[in-house]
Amino acid sequence: MTDRHTLLSSIATEADRDISIASLFDAEPDRLENFVMREGPLRADFSKQALDAAGLKALLDMAAKCDLEEWRSKLFSGEKVNTSEDRAVLHMALRGVGGTDENKAEVAAMRQRMADYADTIRADGKFKNIVHIGIGGSDLGPRLVADAFEASAEQSLTLRFAENVDGASVNDAIKGLNPAETLAVVVSKSFGTQETKMNGESVRSWLGEYGNSNMIAVTANRAGAVGFGVAAENVFDFWDWVGGRYSVWSAVGLSLQIAYGPDVFADFLDGARAMDLHFRDQPLQENLPVMMALVGIWNRNGLGYGSQAVIPYSRRLRKFSAFLQQLEMESNGKSATRDGATSTLTCPVIWGDEGTNGQHAFFQWLHQGTSEGRYGGAPVDFVAVLKDHENRPAHHAALLANCFAQSEALMLGKSEEIVRDELGTRPDLDALAPQMTFPGNRPSTTLTLDELSPNALGHLIALYEHKTFVQGIVWNVNSFDQWGVQLGKVLATTILDEMEAGKSGDHDASTTALMQLIK
Ligand code: F6P
Fold it and tell me: Per the UniProt record, which residue ranges are transmembrane (predicted)?
């Protein structure tokens, strides 16, 4: 295995030349063929990246030197690739791919139990509402998926979420609901998370006499859930080989199964399964998650971009960038390698919002803002859905036109010469023309889904999961732990204990002054 600093520096050297994205379409006649990939309903167009065939070849050579294929085999065979926690990583087994016979048997049994439970609740009619309580990976996936399922599936029970420890979160979740008709689903892999336990307690006390009968739990810590007071027969398990941010496919998705039905959830799993098989079986150069990961490495380590925007042109995918923030930044936002050395540049900041809304906010910066990246602004992943699920053809056409126009505008820009021509002679021409010029040559990828079906959504999420894995291998970080969240959690507990005891503790002057504000 070659040293990552050397390998990634070679990518920086390769990228250190001016590439004109628009010119690549002439220079590389088969560019669309080479830079567009499809898996089922998902098409990915990487042709508007500032990456040419030579750059792509360098990236693929580098990936091979990182033993990517060996790591991929280890992942699917259930080796403990989460080395710092000594765990396998097998969220794919929840979709029926990879893992041991034992993993397969536990998954099959749990899937059956969830489907039976969901069917029973749906048929019984006693419950009209679900309050899903959880945070991070126990919230973002289910919330994103619930929004997206709305495009094509029918929600049979009202589904609300309580995640933040801010009392507004739980208050909003239970507002207007009848405890007798509400099922509380407390979801926590560890069952040690402050926010979830506090929200669980508050909902239990709101449930009153239904506090026991109307509360179930989903966890990898059964003893913790039972200790919290959930009846053992109401606990749904998952396993330490399912990372929190990769857990929506497990019993963490139980609320979704109850609200939308087990068949809808099964389609979602099948979509991810197709992407798993693609990732597992396709050679690196034809592999969609690998391509996406390498494009990201090019932008980060080659062109020096510190952030990556993700803009879904779909209201129903509005939580996608928040979901990816956890998936990518909690997985690869690290500065130590697997063996404890200092890493090279790793995960960029992931950010974004739904289109077209973002166009009226931060797109100014995307088109003309300065940044450390070679061509300015930030690389963008556009995500669009081709089918109109809203029965509003005019709206849908406008939505898609905006999406496609933005990637074209980012690439082509508008030269000062054209601007000057348009402005004609005027006294302020020299001052105004540069302000109205668009530099262009700003990279983007456009992902399209034929429709926003559960199956297509499964493809999309699994694509980013595998992208994240590949980048972690190239950066040589463990993508499956999250030590960086511990320190703040410990300090919050100390500060809360001290505030409750009326003590000021041993803190810096600023923190002490803040604590005194609430005395
Ligand atoms: O704070 C980070 C984190 O540990 C995430 O990794 C996880 O998804 C979230 O907290 C919630 O954890 P749990 O499911 O154990 O409550």
Answer: none
pLDDT in tens, 183-240: 999 999 999 999 999 999 999 999 999 999 999 999 999 999 999 999 999 999 999 9
- If one counts every other C-beta atom within 10 angstroms of the C-beta of residue 20, the result is 15
How far is residue 126 from each of residues 19, 185, 256, measured CA to CA in Å?
Answer: 62, 15, 17
Phi, psi of 45 (to 5 degrees): -110, 105
Is residue 489 part of the annotated active site? The answer reads: yes
DSSP string, 85-127: TTB---GGGGGT-SS-HHHHHHHHHHHHHHHHHHHHHHHH---
Question: What is the spatial distance between Cα 61 and Cα 57, in angstroms, rounded to a whole number?
Answer: 6
Six token digits for residue 72: 């991929």
The one catalytic residue among 328, 330, 354, 465:
330
Q: CA–CA distance from 473 to each of 97, 347, 492, 512 (Å)?
A: 20, 12, 33, 42
Rounded CA separation 519/513 (Å): 10
Q: What is the four-CA torsion angle of 309, 331, 159, 115, rounded to 10 degrees?
A: 130
Index of the ligand 1 atom closest to the CA of residue 190: 15
Supply angle C-alpha 51, 416, 305, rounded to 5. 30
CA distance 438 to 414: 5
Q: Show the DSSP H helices in 369-415 as ranges.
A: 393-412
Neighbour-count burial for 412-428, b at 16+ CB within 10 Å, e otherwise? ebeeeeebbeeeeeeee
pTM: 0.97
- Note if 395 is an active site residue: no
β-pairing, 42-45 vs 36-39, is antiparallel
